[in-house]
Design goal:
Pfam families: Vinculin. It is found in: Cytoplasm. It comes from Cyprinus carpio carpio. The protein is mostly helical and 654 residues long. The strands form two sheets. The protein has a two-stranded antiparallel ribbon with strand order 1-2. The chain has a two-stranded antiparallel sheet with strand order 3-4. Residues 1-28, 530-547 and 644-654 have low confidence and may be disordered. 75% of the residues lie in helices and 2% in strands. It is flat.
């Protein structure tokens, strides 16, 4: 594919002239997706075969037939390709002119290649005097250049349609999101949320396909983070909105709900920024430079002095080192860094400064001597400088990973979350306030630890995942507190309790993701290339070989999962109204609701159901429960017929 980019001029500022007599053709395109690259590979292979033949190729009948077959194959493939491109142009008015021009150029280039490779016999090749691949190599190169350029443009324009689909899907989600935010009745909310669920499933599939297709690792990581927010916020939106509808005058419930809607909007905007490669502010947001990246770049410059003493200035290296030392203050200024760790980091920084200063002295001396390469003394300084900065990186890694490991152990029992749930259920606002202070302190510790992990993560995708984890803890902490305050104000409210449970589960889930992130960072540090963190991974224990579901099957399962979740909420709301909570019917409804919710979690790769066998067993038990409820209903109907009596106002009493 690199050959295609070079040959066609794609991604460059230049222009590729048409071999077919047409004007200039703008090739300032950038291939951003794997699918476009993979589509170009066969074409690149065939054209490379035609262009890279030997100048003094032995013209046997076998060689001529082979060249003609390749030329014909290219021409036929281009014809089919152009037909699809023209059909796309006809269906998309805004791309019609550009796509039409690209298809026209591709067809002309394909025809030119077919003519140049029409060498079916030795007599024809040598006797008629017309241009062929043997006599007009320049013409073949020009035709190939135009073909690759125009085909690439068609592919990139077709990719624009995929982007339009994602934007359109996002817009539908935003409209429904605004409707959900304004609803005032539970019935209206249920109706709109069902539509919202379907739209979110469609958006999830489009963005998931896009994420897998992106070439850029940083964009894939950012897309994964944004999709994780949307995935988890969908359930939060459901319970937070229901809580607000049940308790419309509760300020903490309103704050809790608004935070969820705001976070979803930001995540939707981030997805669009990634797929369109633009930002709403007009400028790309650069990642803050981590200590790992700073050390890596510093070592490259220092080791580059072996090749050239004049490629960079002494002042630039000294300034870069100071910027690097300044970033270590995130470690030394932290209240959670021990005195011994702080002293070790400061000492290693001083050693690095000393070694770099010595390197600069020997470097300047070598420059004064007009040396063409590093002297032995300078070589020794380079080694010592790289060793000292490497020692600093190892210490920072040890401190950050050690801190994260301790925090994960500390929070593994979730005692603060349990205390908040218990205090809220008891209606104890004072206790909720106390535990909220403790949770806030834990949140600050986790946020700072994620920032330190970002410094030493080792790859840009892992840096992005650290930033996502930091933001998640920063946002969910206050949301848990507002949910707990709502429960304390309404301790008998089941929906307020469910809402608090959902936010606590999100906190626990993020702690699990942080443990995986920690392992990935260690893998990179130890030389094992870490895979990109999946914010919501499926960890089913499979006893049989898994079958890959197609997009339609995945959509069906996701929609059924959301419907189960919504029906569960409906059942819980209805059951809550019953006066006799120990009634057999109520108990069975609660069991079925719990099982349905477990099945919903299974569609997300979470919960207690781990295998499809577990799911089938749960469905069977649920079916038996439905049968029992049917029996109870028949019994109640019989009792109603035998005991019903009309009241004075015409109503029926039982």
């Amino acid at each position: 594919v690199a050959a295609a980019v070079t040959l066609a001029g794609v991604g460059s500022a230049g222009m590729a002239s048409s071999p077919c007599g047409g004007g200039n053709f703008d090739c300032g395109l950038e291939i951003q997706t794997r699918s476009v690259e993979q589509t170009l590979i066969p074409l690149v292979s065939q054209i490379t075969t035609l262009i890279n033949h030997k100048d003094k190729l032995k013209k046997t009948e076998k060689t001529l037939r082979a060249i003609q077959r390749v030329g014909q194959a290219v021409s036929v493939a281009v014809g089919r390709f152009v037909a699809v491109g023209e059909a796309i142009a006809a269906e998309n008015e805004d791309l019609k002119d550009e796509m039409g021009l690209a298809c026209f150029e591709a067809r002309r280039a394909g025809t030119a290649i077919a003519q140049l490779t029409d060498v079916s016999s030795l007599e024809q090749c040598e006797g008629d005097g017309r241009s062929t691949v043997f006599s007009d190599r320049t013409g073949m190169v020009k035709a190939a250049r135009m073909l690759l350029s125009s085909v690439t443009k068609v592919l990139v324009l077709a990719d624009c349609i995929v982007i339009k689909q994602i934007i359109s899907s996002r817009n539908k989600v935003l409209v429904t999101l605004e409707q959900l935010e304004r609803v005032s009745t539970f019935q209206e909310f249920v109706q709109i949320f069902s539509q919202f669920g379907n739209e979110m499933v469609e958006f999830a599939h489009l963005t998931g396909d896009r994420q897998n297709d992106l070439k850029d690792e940083k964009k894939r990581a950012r897309m994964a983070a944004a999709r994780a927010v949307l995935e988890k916020c969908t359930m939060m939106l459901l319970t937070a909105s229901k809580t607000c509808l049940r308790h419309p005058d509760c300020e903490s419930a309103r704050i809790n709900k608004e935070a969820v809607f705001q976070r979803m909007r930001l995540a939707l905007e981030q997805v669009i920024e990634i797929v369109t490669d633009t930002r709403s502010g007009g400028e790309a947001k650069a990642l803050p430079v981590s200590i790992y990246a700073g050390i890596k770049d510093f070592k490259v410059k220092v080791e580059g002095l072996r090749d050239s003493l004049y490629c960079v200035s002494c002042e630039a290296v000294a300034a870069q080192l100071e910027a690097l030392m300044e970033k270590t203050e995130d470690f030394t200024d932290s209240a959670y860094t021990s005195h011994e760790q702080r002293e070790t980091i400061i000492q290693l920084c001083q050693i690095t400064r000393q070694e770099t200063k010595q390197l600069i002295n020997t470097w300047r001396h070598a420059q004064l001597l007009k040396a063409k390469e590093a002297t032995d003394e300078m070589e020794l300084s380079i080694l010592k400088t790289c060793q000292s900065v490497g020692d600093l990186r190892r210490e920072l890694h040890r401190v950050a990973v050690g801190r994260a490991t301790e925090l994960l152990k500390l929070h593994s029992d979730h005692l603060v979350l349990q205390a908040l749930k218990a205090s809220g259920g008891d209606g104890n606002l004072e206790a909720v306030a106390d535990y909220a202070g403790t949770l806030t302190e834990h949140k600050e510790q986790l946020v700072e630890t994620c920032r330190l992990l970002c410094h030493i993560s080792g790859t840009e995708p892992l840096e992005i995942t650290c930033i996502h984890a930091e933001e998640t803890f920063r946002v969910i902490g206050p949301q848990i507190i507002s949910a707990a305050q709502t429960l304390a104000l309404h301790p008998t409210s089941k929906i307020a309790k469910e809402n608090l449970d959902v936010f606590c589960e999100a906190w626990e889930s993020q702690l699990c993701d942080m443990a995986i992130l920690l392992k990935e960072i260690n893998d990179v540090f130890e030389g094992r290339r870490g895979a990109l963190i999946k914010p919501f991974s499926h960890k089913h224990l499979k006893t049989v070989k898994a079958a890959k579901l197609d997009a339609e099957e995945q959509t069906t399962i996701a929609k059924l999962g959301l419907e189960l979740c919504l029906l569960t909420s409906d059942v819980d709301s209805e059951v809550e109204r019953w006066d006799e909570q120990d009634h057999e019917m109520v108990r069975l409804c609660q069991i079925i609701s719990s099982m349905a919710y477990s099945m919903y979690l299974f569609t997300r790769g979470e919960g207690l159901l781990k295998t499809t066998l577990d799911l089938f067993h749960q469905a069977e038990v649920r079916q038996r429960s439905f049968s029992l409820i049917g029996f109870l209903i028949e019994s109640l109907q019989g009792a109603i017929k035998s005991n019903a009596s009309p009241g004075k106002d015409g109503s029926i009493y039982y």
